[in-house]
């Protein structure tokens, strides 16, 4: 308790940091683990949720006018963090298996090898993506696509920001290899989160990436939050020490079992009520079902006015577009909190509302 109530190091308390480093090494075996600091050796720091890590990485990397790449629709918290930084967001087409490498290649062909050599012509600085159970689409990138995307990152010399809070919520094993595990150059910054597997309110996550970049983020932490709550870190650290890596992964298995049941209950309710009115793909990870409503070009009014009045809480798809005022025929449903009975009732009410609106 004495330590928990005191200030601590900005990168994180030592025992938690060393647990996390060991864990990342065992889980992802990144090539950068063996590099020197200058070569981009793997480094880790604790953050106040992965959102803090993302926000600080964006602030570190972006100058106004920079080009960056992402696959929208994407997490609204990322878009909100990017907007004030004045970057030019280039949208890459995706499908249920995530970013389409061919489409990325086509976009990148606007730049020449000469631009890459001279770092000129406003080459995209980084690619941001949510590789598993994307919020909001539920999409997951395949291993093949990740490999192709990594090769394009090498060719056009951009960083990859791998925002992966749903990594531990993959429903099928073996889990997909991460960009971090492929990172021979030290060009991947990965954000992990305990929000979806332990507690979102404790506010704890961690960044993994090349040491020179993680060190810069730690300098920013030093002058903003100073560090993630020592109390929270000690609590998490003691739990992890007690569990060990094996015990932690067994806990994750139990969480995944819970989410699998929740996902299947939501798919059953969707099949029952929305079959002729909407389309969706069963998500392979995460906590979201991304539903395209047939015959409705913008779901904003349907969801924010009519559904809300009927106590059905969904998010209209527009919230996840680069330009949030752009119409969207999608809605995002979350299967983290509702019981199967509530999901059934909610989709029945939604089906009635859709029929009224057509
Ligand atoms: N990234 C994505 C894709 C998310 O969906 C979320 C939260 O929903 C976050 C980051 C932020 O999570 P945290 O609670 O770790 O800050």
Could you provide a short overview of the structure?
By secondary structure, this protein is an alpha/beta fold.
Task: Kindly list the characteristics that best describe this protein.
358 residues, alpha/beta, seven-stranded mixed beta sheet, four-stranded antiparallel beta sheet, 10 helices, 13 strands, 42% helix, 15% strand, binds pyridoxal-5'-phosphate
Overall description:
This protein has 358 residues and is an alpha/beta fold. Helix content is 42%, strand content 15%. The protein has 10 helices and 13 strands. The chain has helices spanning 14-28, 49-61, 76-82, 101-108, 113-118, 143-156, 211-223, 230-274, 300-309, 340-357, and strands spanning 42-47, 67-70, 88-91, 94-95, 98-99, 126-129, 159-163, 188-193, 205-210, 278-279, 288-293, 315-316, 330-334. The protein has a 7-stranded mixed beta sheet with strand order 1-9-8-7-6-2-3, with helices on both faces. The chain has a 4-stranded antiparallel beta sheet with strand order 10-11-13-12, covered by helices on one side. A two-stranded antiparallel sheet has the order 4-5. A hairpin with an 8-residue loop joins strand 10 (278-279) and strand 11. The chain is globular and about 60 Å long. It starts with 13 loop residues before the first helix and ends with a helix. Pyridoxal-5'-phosphate (PLP) binds at residues 49-51, 75, 77, 130, 135, 163, 165, 193, 195, 200, 205.
């Amino acid at each position: 308790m004495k330590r928990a109530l005191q200030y601590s190091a900005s990168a994180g308390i030592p025992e938690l940091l060393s647990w996390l480093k060991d864990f990342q090494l065992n889980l992802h075996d990144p090539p950068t683990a063996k590099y020197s600091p200058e070569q981009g050796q793997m480094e880790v720091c604790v953050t106040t949720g992965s959102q803090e890590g993302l926000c600080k990485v964006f602030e570190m990397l972006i100058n106004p006018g920079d080009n960056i790449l992402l696959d929208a629709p994407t997490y609204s918290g990322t878009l909100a963090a990017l907007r004030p930084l004045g970057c030019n967001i280039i949208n890459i087409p995706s499908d249920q298996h995530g970013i389409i490498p061919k489409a990325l290649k086509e976009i990148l062909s606007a730049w020449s090898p000469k631009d890459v050599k001279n770092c000129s012509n406003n080459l995209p600085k980084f690619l941001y993506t949510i590789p598993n159970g994307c919020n909001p689409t539920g999409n997951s990138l395949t291993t093949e696509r990740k490999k192709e995307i990594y090769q394009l990152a090498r060719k056009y010399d951009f960083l990859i920001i791998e925002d992966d809070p749903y990594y531990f919520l993959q429903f099928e094993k073996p889990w997909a290899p991460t960009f971090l595990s492929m990172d021979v150059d030290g060009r991947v910054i990965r954000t992990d989160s305990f929000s979806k597997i332990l507690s979102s309110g404790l506010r704890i996550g961690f960044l993994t990436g090349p040491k020179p970049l993680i060190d810069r983020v730690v300098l920013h932490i030093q002058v903003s939050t100073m560090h993630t709550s020592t109390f929270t870190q000690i609590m998490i650290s003691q739990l992890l020490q007690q569990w060990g890596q094996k015990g932690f992964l067994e806990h994750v298995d139990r969480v995944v079992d819970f989410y699998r049941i929740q996902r299947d209950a939501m798919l059953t309710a969707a099949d029952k009520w929305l079959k002729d009115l909407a389309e969706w793909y069963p998500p392979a990870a995460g906590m979201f079902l991304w539903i395209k409503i047939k015959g409705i070009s913008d779901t904003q009014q349907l969801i924010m006015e009519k559904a809300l009045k009927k106590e059905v809480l969904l998010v209209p798809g527009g919230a996840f577009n680069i330009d949030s005022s752009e119409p969207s025929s999608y809605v995002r449903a979350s299967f983290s909190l509702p019981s199967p009975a509530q999901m059934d009732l909610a989709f029945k009410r939604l089906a009635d509302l859709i029929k009224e609106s057509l």
